[in-house]
Amino acid sequence: xxxxxxxxxxxxxxxxxxxxxxxxxxxxxxxxxxxxxxxxxxxxxxxxxxxxxxxxxxxxxxxxxxxxxxxxxxxxxxxxxxxxxxxxxxxxxxxxxxxxxxxxxxxxxxxxxxxxxxxxxxxxxxxxxxxxxxxxxxxxxxxxxxxxxxxxxxxxxxxxxxxxxxxxxxxxxxxxxxxxxxxxxxxxxxxxxxxxxxxxxxxxxxxxxxxxxxxxxxxxxxxxxxxxxxxxxxxxxxxxxxxxxxxxxxxxxxxxxxxxxxxxxxxxxxxxxxxxxxxxxxxxxxxxxxxxxxxxxxxxxxxxxxxxxxxxxxxxxxxxxxxxxxxxxxxxxxxxxxxxxxxxxxxxxxxxxxxxxxxxxxx
Length: 363
Description:
- The chain is mostly helical.
- Helix content is 67%, strand content 0%.
- Helix 1 (2-26) runs antiparallel to helix 5 and helix 1 packs parallel to helix 6 (110-121).
- Mean pLDDT is 90; it is low at 358-363.
């Protein structure tokens, strides 16, 4: 029986890996890759990274892409394939870290922990975002998962957690609020000023100091960036007469604060997952590859909410003009994804209230 499970797991990983490699082999170019080339051109020229390129993040990723470009040129590999390979390796690393979290932190047997990793690695939403959009949200999420894996009271683990959170935030601000989810233990004031909070935010703001001469462009592109105004979630409030333009952002900020306070006693992985779901429900601007954010953490806990969200997002990608754009009627749109996110959050909250659920942190 055990050998059969192992063979099925190996077959599953090989099949998922083959699909991901097929995506990589078929990929040539798209709009997202064009922005990477702009990063490569602008990064060595200082302030040009923010004044000329559509760049909304810490400078770290721009220099990572520059390094990938130089390495690819030196070994005769196309820039596009090199970036795609890096992101594919990132997802492989994410699968491994999920295995370790499931086994080490959640106490699952080895086969079940490997199954958790496979649920993520074979997830069509993850495969699509990495293979089609070649977006690097998965790199920030990998380091968030490392922080979850390392989270503990021991000093060396706390330092590792803080550094992983810092790298996650420096890569991309999809995890901007997550360091606050690690603010637990001690008095209220000491929690919010812990190293898990101060180090990530300190390094993030410090990374922008060399661009002080272009601070206007940094302010506009990094701190005032609001993504795209699709017909999704609270952004729809702007279409109602009399609703001020700032209302969706105010609701987003309030919802995030409430979530951080409400989830502070949960096991850290589940708290991070639920925070992602709240962010996706109340975010005032959205792009379709944002829907990959909860996929990795969701694999740890599974359930109907995860299954419904995966199904709806995968169908959405099929019909989206920014996805495959297939002319199939009745595929879900932005509203369908939003409601599936609401359903997933409500499902998880219901599970948390169950006496069988582990809701208190081991951190």
